[in-house]
Each structure stands twice: as structure tokens, then as C-alpha cells.
Amino acid sequence: MHRDQGVRGHGYGALDVMRVRQDFPALHQEVHGKPLVYLDSAATALKPQAVLDACAHTYGRDCANIHRSVHTLSHRATSTYEAARARVQRFLGARSSAEVIFVRGTTEAIHLVAQSYARPRLQPGDEVLVTELEHHSNLVPWQLVCQATGARLVPVPVTDAGEVLVEAFAERLSSRTRIAALAHVSNALGTVLPVRDMIRLARERGAATVIDGAQGVVHAAVDVQALDCDFYAFSGHKLYGPTGVGVLYGKRELLADMPPHQGGGGMIETVSFAGTTYREPPYRFEAGTGNIAGVIGLGAAIDYIEGTGLDAIRAHEEALTAYGMQRLAEVPGLRLVGTAPGKAGILSFVMDGVHPHDLATVLDTEGIAIRAGHHCAQPLMERLGVLATARASLAMYNTRDELDRLVQGLHRVHEVFS
Amino acid sequence: MSLVLSLVLSLGTEASMSNLPELYQAVLLEHAKNPRNAHLPEGANRTARSHNPLCGDRIELALTVDQDTITAVGYRASGCAISRASASVMSEAIRGKSLAQVRALSETFHALVTGRSPEAQPESQGAAQDPTALGDLAAFGGVAEFPMRVSCATLAWQALTAALTSNRNDAPG
């Protein structure tokens, strides 16, 4: 059950979803003349007004560059930016805010680790462990660094139900494994991976662990010290925050030894033609002017989530997931893809004789937004023997009525195509 | 014989309203379920492959062109209903036509699926100002309301252009 895999929090509170929905302006619109049913939050989540306000305030009032100026606006922007860093530190359960690096997103975070940590260390014949269900952003950076260093990419297989078993992971660990790069929660299937156990096994072999937490931070509350991962990456925009911002968490002692991946203003101590010295982490890895409003918006998103109540959100999503799986099973010709026990609210499926894009277009005409395609997980699609799936993903603002509308829409799809 | 006349009349009056029947109407679905010419003909002298990364749609098209006329056409296609139906309808529309007629049909089809009015198109030999002359091709008029699906409808036509632009059987996708 995913609660054991790096999760904090106790007890359950009830989520007032109708009140929550009032906070999300994008929910209140019609598509093709029908009220929007947004079931694509795994692609990007809608944003609460508090996040929009924080971004507008940054541009509209505290509009200044950070760290570099002595004037008042800069001080305000800098304080809010660094307060967001501390916010993320607490959200992740990290020891220090110096372990929180702001980047563009999960993809950039993983590239940072691949370039600054892995590349200087990997030798020909070394192994990087991934799984068959990884998102391309947790595959391609490793392919690139393996090509550059002569290391090998080794995929841990998934079961037909879309599970990654600890035993399968243990079997692929070898004396040459230097890095294990693993999804916390599968974006395509909703599988919650047994990352805590896999991290422990990897550590026993002296391998570093990099966790793709893009969906993990949304669906499974994260405590990086309890997980004991070396690196953890996530994106702001999937966590009800702005696009163009993400976080790399890394253990202090590892970051200290890592060279910068990008150079420029903000990450230097001194610059001269004779040589340049770099700042300590996290600033060493924050070259140039970042997405200031995005970072501040991410801080506001975390405030909003924790103000609403992590446990209440989890309980709501769990109940919705169970309801969704049960109702989807009633649709003729529909097969769920990804049926791991304790999975998160990401519901992938296929329908006999209907291409997922046709299915998604029919649903679009009913005002329902889902995703159809390979979900940036082509190796997984190939392993499961499908070209593409349709995917409905749940968030704190979704309701049972919306799942009922999804199922009605799917009955319509069945009528049209049978 | 196409079923298109009554459907074209309804398209004409309701073109501004997006709804399901506009896109997945009977002609299109019929072609998707029972595709015509869905095999590669013997002796083809023009071939091309095309693929739509958005959808994963694929087509391998093969033609026999004899003195400026398409005498045989066939294909292998996989993917969404729109792309497969489009290949089927196209294959019937171009067989026996001259290359000039086929080019004109292609322009008309592109205008149709992107929602540009036929009147705005340059005069070209055989261009149909009258939608009923399009036959079953008119069934794709609804695609204009779904811009994300235009590349599905035009995939087969892209392969056709590639096949006709190459000289022999060596056209890459």
C-alpha cells in the first residue's frame, strides 16, 4: 500500500470538493456546449486562484530580479522566492533548503543529475537501472549519458498488471550498478512503485538513487529522508503550480561534489579570464534568472494543498479511484491497463475496436478532457502490447458525477463504433 | 454509390456547430470498418510511407501510374478511424484519374478539412466548387471543427504527394 512508501501524515479528513472546485477558475467553462470535465491532470493540473494571485502579484507588484539588488522590490521578491524554497524543503521533508534546487521541471532536474553527478562517475560497463514503465524524461537523459560514457542501461521489467516487483529489481542489481533511476508513481498506469525498498537495496550495493517524482508528489506524500533517496525530482505544473518550474532535491554531501551543469550569472563567486569560482549549492545550480514567478507560484500551490489538507486530498482521490475503476469495468469492450494494487488515480484503458484518439475526440465533444497516446512511455506501451491508451487522471477537484459523465461518454463511444 | 447527399445538406446548415455526427458520420465510419483497397497492388511503380507521430497512424501507399493516369491504388494503414477512412475514401477517389485531377482533388480536400472555403482556392483544373462533386470525400468536412485531427485526415494524401513526387519505388516515408 503506498502509504508505506515514503508517506507522512495520519488520519483522514473529509474533503469539501464543491468548495475546492470554487477555487479553480478553469473548471468553470463549457467545451462544445457542455460543462468541462477535466480528467487530464496528470498532463497538467489546473491552478487555484491563490497560485494565479501569487504569480500576478510577483509581476504586478514585487517585480524585480532576485539576489542581486539592494532596493526594496528586489528584497521583497528575494524573500518570497527563498521562502518558497523553504516551503518546498518542508513539503519534501528535506534536512536543509540548500538541498532544494529550482529548475525548469522534472526533465531538467534529471538531466542535471545525469550530467553533473552521473557523467563524471560512470565508466564503460557500468550499469544504470531503470524500469520498463519510465517516462521518456527518466529514460532519454540516461541513454544520452550511457552513450557518452560507455555505461549500459538496464531495464527492470514490469508485470502484465503494470507492477514493478522488488524481486525483479533485486535480480537486475549487480556489482556494476551505479545508479537506479525510478518513477515513484507511473504517469501512464498509476502504479505506485516500492521505491523505499528499492532504494534500500540499491544503497546496499553502493548505487545512487534518482526518483522521478513528477506524479509522486501529487499522489503519494513524500518524505525524502524516510525514503533515503539521493535525488528526487518533480515539476510544479503537475502539483497545481505554474509551468516552467520544477525541483531537484539532492543530498547535501552529493551536491557539494557536483560541478555546475550550466554556468552564468547567479551561480558564481568570482569571474575572471584567469578562472572562475562557483557558489555553494543550491545556487551553484541556478544559473541566470529563473522562473521567479513560477517558483513563488509553486510555493503558493504547496500552501494551498497543505491548507486544504493532504490527508483529505488523498482520501478523496482514493475513493474516486476505486469508484472510477468500478464504473469503467461496466463499459462494454473496455479493458483497464494498469491494475497494480494500491495504484494512484491514473486510469488507463483501451476499448475494443476503437483507437484511443477517436475515443478521446468523442469524449471531447461531450466536454470531457482525457489524454490518448503513448503518454511519453513508448517502451511501456510496447511491453504491454498496445499502440496507445486512453488515460483519465484524477485530482482534488474531480467528483463522482464527473466519473459518471465519463462512463456515459464511453457508452456513447461504444455505440458509435460498434 | 456514395451516401453523401443528405449528409452534405446537413453539413451545409450546421457547419458552425461542433457535434459528434459532424465528424464520425456514417460514411466515414463505414469506410473505417470496411476499408476499400486495403492491400498493396502487384506491379506498383510509385510507393510512399507516411506516419503521424501524434496518433501513431501509419500508411504504406502503392500506386500504378501509367501515362499520367493512376490505374491501380492500394495501401496498408493502421491507426485511428479518421486516418483509415481517409485512406479508403482517397483510394476510390483517385483511381482512374489523371495526375492533374488528383492534384486538384488534393488541394480541395485540404481546403475542406482545414475549413477554408473552396471559393478561396486558386482555380485549378477539375477543382470542385460544388461539394457534391467530392463524393465520399465530403464526409471529412467535419474535421475542420477538430483541428487536432486534421493530420489524421491528411496522412494518406501526404503519402500520395510523396509517392507522386518521387520518380520510382524509392520514396522514403
Report on the architecture of this protein.
- The complex is a heterodimer of chains A (418) and B (173).
- By secondary structure, chain A is of the alpha/beta class.
- Chain A has 15 helices and 17 strands.
- In chain A, the strands form 5 sheets. In chain A, strands 4-10-9-8-7-5-6 form a 7-stranded mixed beta sheet, sandwiched between helices.
- The two termini of chain A are 38 Å apart.
- In chain A, 52% of the residues are buried.
- Chain B has 173 residues and is of the alpha+beta class.
- Chain B is 40% helix and 16% strand.
- In chain B, strands 1-2-3 form a 3-stranded antiparallel beta sheet, with helices on one face.
- In chain B, strand 1 and strand 2 form a beta hairpin.
- Chain B starts with a helix and ends in an 8-residue tail after the last helix.
- In chain B, 40% of the residues are buried.
What can be said about this structure in brief?
The complex is a heterodimer of chains A (418) and B (173). Chain A is α/β, with parallel strands linked by helices. Chain A has 15 helices and 17 strands.
Note the topology.
The complex is a heterodimer of chains A (418) and B (173).
Chain A: H1 17-22, E1 30-31, E2 34-35, E3 37-38, H2 49-60, H3 72-92, E4 100-103, H4 106-118, E5 127-131, H5 140-149, E6 152-156, H6 166-172, E7 177-183, H7 195-204, E8 208-212, H8 216-219, H9 224-227, E9 231-235, E10 246-250, H10 252-256, E11 268-272, E12 275-278, H11 292-308, H12 310-328, E13 334-337, E14 346-351, H13 356-365, E15 368-369, E16 371-373, H14 378-384, E17 389-393, H15 400-417
Parallel strand pairs in A: 3-15, 5-6, 5-7, 7-8, 8-9
Antiparallel strand pairs in A: 1-2, 4-10, 9-10, 11-12, 13-14, 14-17, 16-17
Chain B: H1 4-14, H2 20-23, H3 26-33, E1 46-52, E2 57-66, E3 69-78, H4 81-94, H5 99-114, H6 150-165
Antiparallel strand pairs in B: 1-2, 2-3
Helix pairs in contact in B: 3-4, 4-6, 5-6
